[in-house]
Specification:
two-stranded antiparallel sheet, alpha+beta, Pnp Oxidase, Chain A, 5 helices
Length: 191
């Protein structure tokens, strides 16, 4: 608050605490868009398995966590400090299994090709042949690309079951799950 006989023209309460008036006015606080992000507005692409791209049902951007360390202090308490290592969770995808089982077999063949050799004549595969890059494109409410998330050097670590059930009351498509590891992901805004 101004003290004494100070004259304050055009100063609001927000400016007194260091916030310019322009940022506190309603027209500057309006969001750029009032459309919601839709959970169906995405496209997943994995070049090594084109059928998964077509039949992908569900995918989430994996969580990212950042470690911390406790630094001792002379006051007998420990002060939390930011660490130096990021941890990315696994990429999990649910996909419909087509009647030719191509979607499931693509992952099965990939996993068995990077596993242990069957005999002495079956060589190990070089790392570039074991991994692939993948992308998840997030679309706007008008289905235009907004963001592209690129997953670098992914490879499958788990392939879900194919559940058959003759007692089911309805014939729904079989949905399976695949889990991938990767080095990291990066997010780019689309133009």
């Amino acid at each position: 608050m101004p003290k004494g006989n100070a004259i304050t023209f055009g100063m609001t309460g927000s400016e007194e605490i260091g916030i310019p008036d322009a940022y506190s006015r309603a027209e500057y606080r309006q969001p750029e868009s009032d459309n919601y992000l839709l959970n169906t507005a995405f496209k997943f692409n994995l070049a090594r398995t084109p059928n998964i791209t077509w039949f992908c049902q569900k995918v989430s951007i994996p969580s990212l966590s950042f470690g911390s360390i406790d630094q001792p202090s002379r006051f007998g308490t420990r002060l939390p400090m930011s660490g130096s290592e990021y941890t990315f969770d696994d990429l999990v995808i649910d996909f419909i299994v087509d009647e030719n089982v191509n979607t499931w077999m693509e992952i099965y063949n990939w996993m068995t090709s990077i596993g242990q050799p069957k005999d002495d004549k079956d060589p190990f595969i070089d790392r570039p042949e074991q991994t692939s890059d993948a992308s998840l494109v997030i679309l706007s409410s008008s289905y235009n690309p907004k963001y592209k998330i690129t997953f670098k050097d992914i490879f499958p670590i788990s392939l879900g079951e194919l559940p058959f059930d003759s007692t089911a009351p309805e014939t729904d498509p079989i949905v399976s799950t695949v889990t991938f590891k990767y080095r990291y992901y990066q997010i780019e805004q689309s133009n």
